[in-house]
Amino acid sequence: MSNETDPGLSGGHNSRTMTESDLKEAYYQMVLIRRFEERAGQLYGMGLIGGFCHLYIGQEAVVVGIQMELKQGDKIITSYRDHGQMLAAGMDPRGVMAELTGREGGYSHGKGGSMHMFSSEKHFYGGHGIVGAQVSLGIGLAFANKYRGTDEVSVTYYGEGASNQGQVYESFNLAALHRLPCLFVLENNRYGMGTSVERASASKALWRNGEPWGIPGMYVDGMDVEAVRAAAAEAVAHCRAGKGPVLMEVDTYRYRGHSMSDPAKYRQRSEVEEIRKNHDPIDRVRRELLERGVAESDLKALDDKVRTVVLDAAEFAQTSPEPDPSELWTDILVES
What we know:
The protein is α/β, with parallel strands linked by helices. About 40% of the residues lie in helices and about 10% in strands. It has helices at about 20-45, 60-65, 85-90, 95-100, 135-145, 165-175, 195-200, 225-240, 270-280, 280-290, 295-320; strands at about 5, 75, 155-160, 180-190, 190, 195, 215-220, 245-250. The strands form 2 sheets. It has a 6-stranded mixed β-sheet, with helices on both faces. Helix 6 links the parallel strand 3 (about 155-160) and strand 4. The longest helix is centred in the first third of the chain and has 26 residues, at about 20-45. It is globular and about 50 Å long. This is Pyruvate dehydrogenase E1 component subunit alpha. Heterodimer of an alpha and a beta chain.
């Protein structure tokens, strides 16, 4: 997995070496997402989570690396594979898991499920089930930032399966026209549902898709949290400086199927095993920390902390009451 870029953006070539403290934080956040998603998968198998459930296992370095370069007020919006973004943004694991089980304690009071939860406090705007629809909303958030005269950035995530949607290109045009502070993050996990990107896209260098509108592009190893963070630092600085949008393609991989109902028979087991063995983002950070002299006991303490948080979230998600029927009539109209 390599890095490429348009002139003027390094795409992580000049990746800063993260401090030991930052690496530990990245390790904790990635393990939290991984264990949370594994537990969600278990609850789904037990019949405690209904509807669609898209897991983020394998892609953790993408959102963690980018989130480390954001500040309070920056906006985040993504597709239906959204639990990782929520946790990285600082949303309460209890509230996220309870929404998955459709309980009153969930972020959408049990009405949204996996794909539709939000947090105005954390500036997280969903979770959207329509492929590519969040991209247009993402530039709306960026327009609001510019209109208000802030230097806040809108980070708009979407997958390679949405990369050739017409609304994505319309959004590129508007973002470039108005020089909107929008970081488009194209998470290329190689498969749009069950179709390889190699069979679905005539454009092979997706990071260059913004070139007709003059949008600079970056291609980054999405399995390396240090590379992602370095690229994000440069892209976010570009947006904050009023220079307009950036398109960042992150080369990543999902270990599970498209959703919990997908057996992923369209790829070989050996392919998944090779990525897990040689490119796993958590193992990479773990090795780096050990090479720097961090004790195994320190990492075990972080693992134990994650385990406690996830078990607590799962317990809360099963004991929180189901929403009252009156909730059917709330959150429909804006009430003063």
